[in-house]
Amino acid sequence: MKTARELGLMPESRLSVGPDNAITDVPGVAVGHRSLRSEGIFTGVTAVVPHPGDLFGVKPRAAVEVINGFGKSAGLMQVAELGTIETPILLTNTFGVAACTEALIRRAIAENPAIGRKTSTVNPLVCECNDGSINDIQALAVTPDDAMAALDAARPGPVEQGAVGAGSGMTAFGFKAGIGTASRILRIAERDFTLGTLVLANFGAAGDLVLPDGRRPDPRVPADPEHGSIIVIMATDLPLDSRQLQRVARRGGAGLARLGAFWGHGSGDVVLCFTTADPVAHEPKSPIVTQGRLSDDFIDIAFRAAAETTQEAVLNALCAASATPGRNGRIYPALADWLKESTNP
């Protein structure tokens, strides 16, 4: 399927786009999917791996911004408290959180046998959206093996988007949606940095979507109350402290607002932002650690990148997904089809 830009939608982009326009444009970041397809099952797992090394031993700095907290994720509380992540990030459906949590714990213990015995326990990081409108969520189809498969599939480079991995059964604004990604290059003091965003888009009431050209697509489905969710994962190689990371994460909300979202009562809207710069050692060599930090005088460019990439990642998730039947007989249409019909009535 095509991206938003390939379909003629041009999100605001005052910054240069990365080579693959993906979260994986941040050096070291990898993404993998595991898609599950069988009778009544249309779900999966998506893995975001911040760097190829030992994440428990070398922890990326991170922060969480909970825009609306209607969600059942795992691990966010410790990230908010300590400002680091120590496992890959897994995305899945609401009832797949436990299976993904087990997989992350087992993977971490295999790599660090001292976990839970000679050193601290590990904080598995799993985020979710409810895909029950398409997938039989009560089947508990996601297993730890599926989560392991997504981790094993993680690669740098182009990212498959749309109804893939965790995005398989997700919808947004009455259309089929799923996984989307985008990136921007940040030029600061004659150096290039990157900020990339990946979304699991499952939010927005039908009829509320606003395209970059101002059009409001009609998916011709009932305008149900806004009770979906979105998980936004941001990665950068900018040296940012935990306070700055949360401030950048907060600007993801600006990108969602550009799309027409208002974060309804039943919506779980969470942004997780991490940096690959100056990670934190599990066993530091010195009690005093020096870390780089961007001057706040230059942070607006990161705020802009956060808003731009979040908006475009959601549009890519919508544009890359094909029309799909729901469990109640409703067909969730493809935005790409609407765009084609609106151009050639």
Structural features:
single chain, 345 residues, alpha+beta, L-amino peptidase D-ALA esterase/amidase, four-stranded mixed β-sheet, 7 helices, 13 strands, globular
SSE blueprint and pairings:
Elements: E1 30-38, E2 41-49, E3 58-69, H1 76-82, E4 89-93, H2 97-111, E5 125-129, H3 144-152, E6 171-172, E7 175-176, E8 179-188, E9 191-202, E10 229-236, H4 242-250, H5 252-258, E11 268-281, H6 300-319, E12 324-325, E13 331-332, H7 335-343
Parallel strand pairs: 4-5, 10-11
Antiparallel strand pairs: 1-2, 2-4, 3-11, 6-7, 8-9, 9-10, 12-13
Helix pairs in contact: 2-3, 5-6
Enzyme class: hydrolase
Protein name: D-aminopeptidase
Pfam family, one: Peptidase_S58
